[in-house]
Design goal:
By secondary structure, the protein is an alpha/beta fold. It has one domain (about 1-25, about 30-170): Rossmann fold (3-Layer(aba) Sandwich), CATH 3.40.50. It is built from five helices and ten strands. The protein has helices at about 5-20, 50-60, 85-95, 115-135, 160-165; strands at about 1-5, 30-35, 35, 40-45, 70-75, 95-105, 135-140, 165-175, 180-185, 195. The longest helix has 18 residues, at about 115-135. The chain starts with a strand and ends with a strand. The model has no long low-confidence stretch (mean pLDDT about 80).
């Protein structure tokens, strides 16, 4: 799960990481993400708050040679009401699928209650599907406005969101218009760390 205070900064970070995952298999140097070698394959990015023009513009800011392994969608069903079936269908058509990004989580939520139990229960189908399909699902979400010494306490919603996912990344800018940010990472199989970007 990826959480960010500034969605524009997180999207730029995601595009860079997706570019590494979608490299052709014949390229010798496979990139690292959080000290792990990326698995090459396809990526599906649900850009649920964007237009095709904005997506194309961002993509060409990052590369002159877009990959044919990166797919975008402007629409997605909600969790429990068709999203899981969309992902299963896409995986059946692209057996090398490695990564699904849902930007933003709020756009696929069907639950309005934000108690620990309902937040946790709402994400269980996606967690189970990721394991079943052997893919990574990244959920882009917002942070609360209130500051906290622990950036993971700033994740909007209950701690049920944090409790369900295997990992969390928080990209936090020092200043709203500043060019510097810190990426905080934690998770079940991720050593706690932060990196300045």
């Amino acid at each position: 799960m990826i959480i960010t205070e500034t969605l524009a900064a997180m999207r730029a970070f995601l595009y860079c990481e997706i570019k590494q995952i979608c490299k052709p298999k014949n390229m010798q140097n496979r990139e690292q993400l959080l000290d792990r070698t990326t698995q090459q394959g396809s990526a599906l990015y649900f850009c649920l708050e964007d237009s095709y023009t904005r997506i194309q513009s961002r993509l060409y800011e990052l590369t002159d040679e877009p990959t044919d392994k990166l797919f975008f969608s402007l629409k997605a069903d909600t969790i429990g009401s068709g999203l899981e079936e969309q992902l299963v269908k896409f995986k059946s058509e692209h057996d090398d699928l490695q990564l699904v990004v849902i930007d933003t989580l709020q756009m696929v939520r069907s639950e309005t209650d934000s108690s620990y139990g309902s937040d946790y229960a709402e994400l269980i189908p996606l967690k189970s599907l990721a394991e079943q399909l052997d893919i990574s699902i990244v959920l882009v979400h917002h942070l609360r406005k209130a500051a906290d010494n622990d950036p993971f306490n700033m994740i909007s919603g209950s701690t049920g969101l944090n409790g369900c996912v295997d990992g969390m990344l928080v990209l936090k800018k020092d200043k709203r218009c500043g060019g510097q940010a810190v990426l905080y990472a934690t998770g079940r199989d991720i050593e706690d760390r932060n990196a300045h970007h």
